[in-house]
Amino acid sequence: MKEKSDFEKRAAEKQVSLLTEALTSAVDAKGHWLNASGKLYPKLYPKGFSVSPFNALILALDSDAKGCKSNLFTQFSEAKARGESVREHEKGVPFLYYNWNKYVNRNNPDDVITKEAYAELSDQDKQQYKGVKNREIRVLFNIDQTLLPMANETAYTTVLKKDGTVEDRGYGDKEDKQLHGRVNGFLQKMKDNLVNVRQDGTGVAHYDTEKDVIYLPRQRDFEHYNDYVQEMMRQLVSATGHQQRLAREGMVMKNGKAPSEDAVKKEKLITELASGVKMLELGLPARLSKDSLGMVDYWTRELKEDPCLIDAIESEVNGALKVLKKAELGEKVEYATNQHQRETAQMQGQLPNHYFVADEIKQHPNEEQRTVVIVRDDANKTADVVLPQGASLEVNNEIKGMNKQRFTNALQKEGYDNVRFYNPDGALGFRPDDSYFADKKITVSRLRNWSIEDLSSLDATEAVIHSRDIGFDNVQLVKDDKERWALYIKPEGKEGFAVYPDKGDLNHFFTTLKQSMDNIERVREELAQKYYAMAEAKPDLKVDIFGGNEQEVDLNRIQRVAVFRAKSGECLCAATIDGKKLQPRSVSPSQWQRLWVAPDRDSYKQSLAASLFADVLQKDNNVEQSTQEKQEEATEVKQAETATVEKHDEQKEMAQQEDKPSDQKEQASEQREEKKEEKAVKVAISPLVQQYLDLKKKHPDAILLFRCGDFYETYKDDAVKASKILGITLTKSNGRKDDEGKPLAMAGFPYHALDTYLPKLIRAGERVAICDQLEVPKQTTSSKRGITEMVSPGKEAGRPMAQENQETEQHTSLRR
């Protein structure tokens, strides 16, 4: 979570203070904790804009604490501009203001676009993004804290009659009747669009999560009408967190953990606060239930000790009441399963169709045997007849023994009203996708007198199943290195991949995990089908959660990796790098979890080691780079000295040519230009590279492994080829040039890894020449090197080459 500024911390402390004081006072006020004077829902004065539920809660609490007569608030600057400045020494209340300047892809947290880019998207693409809230904290003041009551007493009295307390508004029987009608209409909207509400004779209101039904006592069973209304609100808020309702996360299911006693108590707090805000909307006071009064001490302690709890309360209160508002406005709150099925069907419509059944059908119509294929649809009373040929619209285009009218009459006798004729292929070819054959009967048939004889049947059940849905070997929710939840999907017979699910789907999964473990496998299947179809239609949604080689190091330097759980319970990773066994390092819970899900466990362990020991690998790379830089610097110094001598010789030669005839001068000038071109190439090539080029001329058909310090290196085309075969990094050196004056292409590996890499080159069909140092290298000059071994495909590696040139006579084979 983002670190809060000092201003945000003070604002949170103020919110906690208001809430804890109200809850504590309820113990001595018969449960009353909010809006005892019956004011209306908080608004911004004078424009009358309503505020979010959590903001309304904080503003109303502040208004109650200060004894204000309304819940109308204004900003300091706006009050001053109206000539109604805030009075001296008055303290405001924090107000959370959100704007949306960025939008993030629902299934790819790394895909963030600007508000302007979002506006240019199509309506369909916009559905894939959601706004990223940018929170600002502003300070508001109640109009009673301003000079309005004195500056414009008439305006002040008018607003109190509209938005003030019950007494100021003149609440009477007429208003009470209107309230009852409003509550009854609200309850009916909830029944129609959110959850079933039934009367219960036990006298105890409760929400049955298994049946998704609210049981509510009769109104006359409550002492006060307000108590009946608030209990109804409590149960409705509880229903917004049901496992089948994509509503809100709920603190009880954070990170997918089963609810603890503490979590249940915190969820009860959300129920009381959210129902209190609904009472505020109706202009009614809010009370805590008897059970809740016993939890006040726990709530106040948690609010003071947990600085993040107030943020969770904000999210949950707003989330719960947002769902109620949708239902109140007539929007059907769709069950999660229905929504998944609808979304999956939409995505599947974008997938490539399969035609296995149609391809099979076209093999069976036979003119000689007079057989056709008939596809019967009992539900729609239709039949498709696939002829060997002759499906022309012309009536007289018939095949002997396959009269279309006779087929039509026979099938109509069976009850099929609509009969259509097709060919196996062509313009009138029969080629629906596999899903078309769901609940249809397919037979190979022929005419027998005036009826149809079915010779055999074709079973398309499996093809229909796989036309849309697909089986999965593994479906898991795992966390990536940034602790974001990802859904790993392994389809049957295909490579696995991961996607980032939408938050609503995560909520559904974890709510089910909390409330109904019996349904968790079904939810896994729903999510897998949905996101498989989505990823197939949009492959860019697939992400790698098992880690690539982001450190740009040679993974083959890591010889051995072991990941294990120590006796202390800590997960550790031990690795052997460049032949050295390193001290084990800690593995995070998410990394440990991904280990058991990874499709290639060995590859993942190697990538994990590369991540955990990146400093070791990078340090070695820096040492190697420093050595190369020193060698290149020494080479450049020598080249500069050589160039100075050559320039002096050139000037001397030009002075000697001045006294010669003009034709001889011209010829000498051309010779000098030719020498310049030859020298330019020679100067650009270091002695080490020249050695490589000389040896490469002798073995042009072999990959030359060139020993340079503690590494075997390949250059130019050899480097390109070796990097592809061995999977090592291909680089280009700006300090070294090849014989064409271009940066030298290079790829290499540690000398002790030769036994690992050499077999790979041989198995790839390459002939390999190994060049070793024949003397100890000096600081500024290139040491003498020679071919020490030639290995060809099919030849046993490790046998020294027999005196291929004079340079190898005094050196034994590198291989042992």
Automatic annotation (TrEMBL):
Residues 19-124 form the N-terminal domain. SUPFAM superfamilies: DNA repair protein MutS, domain I. GO terms for molecular function: ATP binding; mismatched DNA binding; single-stranded DNA binding. Residues 195-310 form the Polyvalent protein metallopeptidase domain. Pfam families: ArdcN, MPTase-PolyVal, MutS_I. Residues 623-680, 781-816 are annotated as: Disordered. It comes from the Bacteria. GO terms for biological process: mismatch repair. This is DUF1738 domain-containing protein.
